[in-house]
């Protein structure tokens, strides 16, 4: 049987297919040259179970740091704990408003063809709220991902898993000591729940959570350290929005605002997006535009793949893994 890599090498010759193959090859070149990959992830990638292959990428040292929407962080957790209770709706395009209301009344939150049970949110809330309360009471705030890691470290937690542990990218990230940045964390279910816990008095203050500007400082210090080690850092972006816009700005911030002019540019850039430039969307901006913002250099390998990330990302990951 032909391998995925051989199939791509033989068939992916033009257009988005060629761009996909070139991006995968350049990723391997970056790692072979001693570089590391910074992955950003928007969209509902955790709900589409990208963790099945992304967890392997993390465990095999192909992804070293992650920035994602808060929804992707929590939805990998939801899938880990309650996958068997999810409801699939293959005919989601045909649903009437009344059918949508039936799903709501039955306790489901729909993401395209996948319905997440409301119960999983409450199950996680009961456990993580205790961690938030402790952090607030002791005046020891943490980043959102650190609370998730603490939750996954609780004795016996693995008994609650409904998918194989190796299918969770967040669990893989915890095991490998990977930092997960989540700018705009309040824009997610757990972020909403956190606010409700503060307003109800269960958590005494918002101080339990470290702020977004602290995340930027943490990222900046890490990037500076990688620069001192002469480690090239690539930037692989799935989707658009804050998950990609937040971390890529660390380079011009260091150069233009902190005036560290010897800061290296990102050493690789690839984005998978369904957005195009003609609407003025930054998520659809071609990589060359980032040169004018001081994020990429003229000679940085750059790739823009206009396609479905749920299809393309696993193919690139498979190629990088040598499958």
UniProtKB/TrEMBL annotation:
GO cellular component terms, semicolon-separated: cytoplasm
Top-rank EC class of the record's enzyme: transferase
Domain of life: Bacteria
GO molecular function: deoxyhypusine synthase activity
Keyword Lipid metabolism: no
The enzyme's E.C. designation: 2.5.-.-
UniProt keyword annotation of Acetylation present: no
Similarity comment: Belongs to the deoxyhypusine synthase family.
Protein's UniProt name: Deoxyhypusine synthase-like protein
Species whose genome carries this gene: Fundidesulfovibrio magnetotacticus
């Amino acid at each position: 049987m032909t391998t995925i890599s051989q199939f791509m090498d033989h068939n992916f010759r033009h257009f988005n297919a060629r761009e996909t193959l070139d991006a995968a090859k350049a990723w391997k070149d970056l790692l072979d040259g001693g570089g590391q990959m910074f992955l950003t992830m928007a969209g509902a990638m955790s709900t589409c179970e990208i963790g099945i292959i992304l967890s392997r990428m993390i465990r095999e040292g192909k992804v070293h740091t992650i920035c994602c929407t808060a929804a992707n962080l929590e939805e990998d957790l939801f899938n880990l704990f309650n996958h068997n209770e999810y409801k699939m709706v293959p005919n989601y395009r045909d649903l009437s408003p009344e059918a949508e209301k039936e799903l709501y009344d039955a306790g489901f939150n729909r993401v395209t063809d996948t319905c997440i049970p409301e119960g999983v949110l409450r199950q996680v809330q009961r456990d993580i709220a205790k961690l938030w309360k402790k952090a607030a009471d002791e005046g020891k705030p943490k980043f959102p991902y650190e609370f998730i890691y603490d939750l996954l470290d609780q004795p016996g937690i693995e008994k609650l898993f409904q998918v194989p542990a190796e299918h969770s990218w967040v669990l893989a990230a915890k095991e490998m000591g990977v930092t997960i940045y989540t700018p705009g964390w309040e824009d997610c279910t757990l972020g909403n729940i956190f606010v409700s816990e503060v307003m109800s008095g269960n958590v005494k203050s918002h101080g339990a959570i470290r702020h977004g500007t602290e995340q930027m400082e943490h990222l900046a210090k890490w990037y500076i350290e990688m620069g001192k080690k002469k480690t090239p850092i690539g930037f692989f972006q799935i989707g658009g929005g804050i998950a990609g816009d937040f971390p890529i700005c660390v380079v011009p911030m260091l150069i233009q605002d902190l005036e560290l002019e010897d800061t290296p540019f990102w050493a690789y850039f690839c984005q998978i997006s369904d957005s195009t430039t003609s609407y003025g969307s930054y998520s659809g901006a071609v990589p060359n535009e980032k040169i004018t913002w001081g994020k990429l250099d003229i000679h940085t390998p750059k790739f823009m793949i206009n396609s479905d990330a749920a299809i393309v990302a696993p193919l690139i990951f498979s190629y990088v893994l040598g499958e």
